Amino acid sequence: MPNRPENLINVEGHPLEKILESLTEISVAVVLFGLNDELIFCNEKYKSINEDIRQELTPGTRFSDLCESVKNRREISGMTGDRYVEERFRRFRKPGLPFDEKHADGHWYSIEDHRTSDGYFVGIRTDITEQMLAQQALRESEERHRALSDLTSEGVSIHEDGVILEANQAFADMYGYSISELIGMSVLDLTTPEYRHDVAGRMTRNKSDTYESVSFRKDGSQIPVEIRAKQIVYKGRQMRVSRIRDLTETKRASQELERRGASLAEAQRIGNMGNWERDFVAGTFHWSDQIYRIFGLDADEQPPPDNDRFLSIVHADDRSSVRAAARAAARYSIDYRIVRPDGEERVVHEEAEIIRDAAGRRLRLTGTVQDITERKRVEQALIASEAKFSGVLDIASDAIITTDEDGNAQMFNQGARDTFGYQEDEVLGRSIEMLMPERFRDGHARSMAGFGTSGIQSRRMSERNDIVGLRKDGSEFPAEASVSRLETGDNILFNVILRDISDRKRIEREITQAKELAEAASSAKSQFLAGMSHELRTPLNAIIGFSEIMAGESFGPLGSEQYKEYATDIHNSGILLLDLISDVLDLSKIEAGAMELTEGVVSLNETLRSTLRLVHKRAETNSLHIATNLDPASPLIRGDERAIKQIVLNLLSNGAKFTGEGGTITVSSQTESDGGVSLTVADTGIGIAPADIAKVLEPFGQVGSVQIQAHQGTGLGLPIAKRLTEMHDATFELESEVGVGTTVKLRFPKERRLGPEDS
Predict the structure, then answer these.
(1) pLDDT of 459-518, one tens digit each?
(2) What is the domain-level CATH number for residue 369?
(3) Are residues 667 and 744 in the same domain?
(4) Pair 533, 667 in one domain
(5) Is residue 143 part of a domain?
(6) Cβ proximity of 356 and 363 under 8 Å
(7) HEC profile for 339-367?
(8) Is 409 found in the same domain as 373?
(9) Dihedral, CA of residue 288, residue 293, residue 295 and residue 299, to nearest 10
(10) Cβ atoms of 166 and 180 closer than 8 Å
(11) How does DSSP classify residue 558?
C-alpha cells in the first residue's frame, strides 16, 4: 500500500489505517496500543516528547517494557519507580479523566487516554506549556497586584455625597490627619477654593474620572494631586471611591525634566551636536533641533524626517559608506560629508547603536551627529604642522625626552644631547634613570608609578621635589622638569621636558644675598633715623621754648624789634623741624616694625569731631568751609584711637594746606554694604595729577608742581597715614584731579566693626 506509515502494523484493511495515516505529522502527540498491549503506532510529535525512549518506540514494543525503561527517569504527581509504573498501568487499564503532566524539560502536556470499543488504547498528548505559563503569570500578576494594593503609597478614600466614610493610612499621611479625623469630613474641605467647583461637578456626574486638583493639608500647605474616581456599590449604597496620588514630586520632576531638556538643547547647541532616533516599531524618525541646524534646515518648515530625506543630505560620494556602516554592526561610528541646501559642504561625525529586545528583534536605532568641520580643518593643519614639529624639537634648547611605560627612552632631542652630553644612540632603549644620580632613582620610580595611575595628564615634577640631572661626565646640575602622559592606541608614552637651571639658581642666590644686604641696610637706616630723631628732639625742644620766651619778651624787651622777628623765625623753624623729626621717627618705627597699635573701642564720629577742632582755627584763617556728613549710627570699630587721629589730622592738614581761600573740606563716615566702615576726607584744593599719585604716597615724595612746592612740607604726611591705615587691615584709596580736588577714603573691614554693646 503506497505511503503506508511505517509504524502501522497489523492494521491493514482496518478502519484505523486511514485515520493513523492522517495523524503522522500533526502537532498533537498520538499513540496507539493493540489488544496485546503492543505498540501499534506513535506519530513524530509523540516521539519528540519522549525523546529519552525514542529508540524503543517501535511497533511491537509492549507497554510494560516502556514503563520499565522510564520508571526511574519519569515523575508523575511526585511518584517515580514502581509507584510510577503502577500508576501508569492503572491509567492504561482504566483510563480516567484528562490530567496535566509536567516533564523534566519544563513542558506541560494535557494527557487524554481512551479505550476503544474493540479494546484498543489511544493516548493523546497536547502541549499546553504556553497556557500553563500564562496561567502561572496570571497568578503571579494577581499576587503582585494584591501585594501592591496592600503596600500602595496612593491615598484611597470612600465617600458618599462628598462625605468621607473610609480612608486608608496613605490618604491620612498625605493630608496630615489621622484616619479618625478624616471620617465625616467633606472632600471639598480638603480642596482649595479655585478647584472646589470643578471637583463638586465631577462628583455629581457619577462616572469614572481622572483629573488633577490642588488640596489643603492639615497644616495649611497645598499639594497638587491626581484623582482617579469611580462609582461603586458599597454596603448596599452608591458610593464613590477615589485614589489620590501626590503629584508634588511629579511636578518637580516635570519641571526638572523641562529644565534638563532646555539644558540638553543648549549643550547640543554649544557642542554643535544633535541626537536622532529611528523607531522601527512605531515607524517614526526623530531629529533634535540641533540636527536641523547642523543640516542647515528650518525645523518648522520641514516635513517629518525619514531615511530618504536623511540620505539626500549626505554627500553623494559618501552615501554608500553610510549605508554600509549602518548594516555592518549593531553599533557604528563614521565620519562623512553633508551638503546643506545652500550648497555648503560640512563634515559630521556620527555614532549610532541598534537597540533590540530580549528576543533580538530591532526596536530602534539611536545616534548622535556632531559637526566636526572645524576640527577636521584643525587636524589637517596639525598634520601639516607635524612635519615642522620634528624640526622644532631639534632646535629647542630644552631637553625633550620621550619614554615608554617602563621608562625606556624612545626620543632624545638635540637639547637633551647638549644638556646631558650623551649621543642619541647611547640613550635610546635604555632607562632614563641613567640621567639622574643614584640617590634619586627610587623616588623617581615611585613618583612615575603614582603619576601613571593617577589619571592626571601632566605634572610639573619640580613642584614636589628638587630635580637633579647627571651628565655623562658625572657632574650634577639642578633642573626643572615637567612630564605629560600620552595615550597612542594601546601604548602609553611619557614626554619629559627638562631644563638646566644652574644659571638661574646662581642668580637667585645672588639676588637673595643682595636682598638680605638691602634689608640689613634698610633696618640700620631706620634704626639710625629713629635714634637720631630721638637725640635731636631734646635740644630742639629747648630751642623752641627759649625762642618762644624771647619772642614773647617774657623777661623784658630785647632792645630791638629785629631781634624779636629773629626769635619768631627761630621758633617757627623749630616747630617745622620738630614736625619733620616726629614724622621721620614715626615712619622709622613703622618701617622698622617697632610701631605697635594700642587697640580699643573707637567711635569714628567722635574721633572725627575732636580732630576737626584741632584744625578749625587754621581753616578759619584760610577762610575754608568744613562740612561733615557722619553716619548717624555712629559706627564703632576696634583700633588705635591715637593712630586714627593722626591719620585724620594728616589728611585734614594736607587738605587745609592745599585748598585755596573759600574752598571746602568734607569729612564723612559711612557703614558699607559689606558690613565694613568707611571714613572719607575730600577737599576742593589744587589736586594731584594721576601720574603723581604713586609718588606722593612714598616717603619724602613731592611732585614738581610750583603750587605744591610753594607750601612747606616733609612729604611724609600721606605715607604715614597710608601705613597706619594698613596696620588696621584697612584700605587707603586716593583719587585726585588737578584743579578739582583730592578725595581719600579709608575702608575698615567688617571684622573690625563693633556693635553698640561693645562701647
Answers:
(1) 776 565 678 999 999 999 998 888 888 876 667 888 888 888 888 888 988 888 888 887
(2) 3.30.450.20
(3) yes
(4) no
(5) no
(6) yes
(7) ECCCCCEEEEEEEEEEEECCCCCEEEEEE
(8) no
(9) 60
(10) no
(11) -
Give the integer Cα–Cα distance in Å for 660 and 657.
8
Q: Which three cell numbers stand for residue 520?
A: 640689613
Domain count, the chain: 6
Q: Is residue 512 part of a domain?
A: no
**Amino acid letter, residue 650:** N
8 Å CB contact between 282 and 272: no
- Which residue range is the domain that position 370 belongs to? 252-377
Question: Could you tell me the three cell numbers for 341?
Answer: 541646501
Tell me the residue type at 517. L
- Stretch 321-336: mean pLDDT, rounded? 83
**Residue labelled with grid coordinates 600721606:** 718
Find cell 563634515 and name the residue: 347
What percent of the chain clears pLDDT 90, i.e. is strictly above it? 18
Q: Residue 482 belongs to what H/E stretch?
A: strand 476-488
Q: Which residues of 727-738 are buried (b: 16+ CB within 10 A; e: fewer)?
A: bbebebebebee
Please state, in angstroms and as integers, the Cα–Cα distance from residue 304 to each residue in 284, 298, 350, following that order: 9, 12, 20
- The identity of residue 555, as a single letter, is F
What is the pairing mode between strands 664-671 and 625-629?
parallel
Nearest in space to 365 (alpha carbons), one of 309, 285, 306, 308: 285
CB 268 within 8 A of CB 288: yes
Work out the angle at residue 414's Cα, subtended by the Cα atoms of residues 408 and 419, and round it to the nearest 5 degrees.
80
Amino acid at the residue 468 = V
Q: What is the mean pLDDT of residues 606-618?
A: 84
The answer for residues whose C-beta is within 8 angstroms of residue 104's C-beta and 6 or more apart is 73, 75
Distances (CA, A) of 679 to 457, 659, 667, 735: 51, 20, 8, 14
Q: What are phi and psi of 470, to 5 degrees?
A: -125, 115
Residue 399 banded pLDDT, cuts 50, 70, 90: confident
Tally of CB atoms within 10 A around 506: 11
Spatial separation of the C-alpha atoms in residues 458 and 3, rounded to whole Å: 83
Cα–Cα distance for residue pair 571/565, rounded to 1 Å: 10
Between 171-175, 313-317, 466-470, the lowest mean confidence (pLDDT) is in 466-470
Residue 291 scores a pLDDT above 90 = no
**CA distances for 591 relative to 530, 594, 646, 720, angstroms:** 10, 8, 17, 10
Residues 305, 370: one domain? yes
CA 559 to chain centre: 92
388 pLDDT exceeds 70?
no
pLDDT in tens, 102-143: 877 788 889 999 998 888 999 999 999 988 888 887 677 556
Last residue of a domain, one of 500, 530, 551: 500
Whether residue 166 is contained in a domain is answered as: yes
Q: Cell numbers of 681, please? A: 576726607
Contact present, 444 and 433 (Cβ < 8 Å): yes
Rounded Cα–Cα distance for residues 750 and 638 (Å): 10
Degrees to nearest 5, angle at CA 178 with 176 and 182: 95
User: What CATH number is associated with residue 695?
Assistant: 3.30.565.10
Neighbours of 583 (CB within 10 A): 22
Q: Which helix (H) or strand (E) holds 214?
A: strand 209-216
**Which residue do the cell numbers 530591532 mark?**
362
Distances from the Cα of 608 to the Cαs of 73, 179, 614, 616, in angstroms?
A: 110, 71, 10, 12
The order of strands in the sheet holding 362-371 is 284-287, 273-279, 362-371, 345-356, 331-339
pLDDT of 30 > 90? The answer is yes
What are the phi and psi torsion angles at 354 (to 5°)?
Answer: -90, 130
Boundary-marking domain end, from 569, 588, 607: 588
Q: What is the Rg, in whole angstroms, of the alpha carbon atoms belonging to the chain?
A: 51
Please check whether residues 201 and 270 belong to one and the same domain. no
- Residue 592 class from Cβ within 10 Å (0-12 exposed, 13-18 middle, 19+ buried)? middle
Residue with cell 525523546: 51
Residue 515 maps to a domain: no
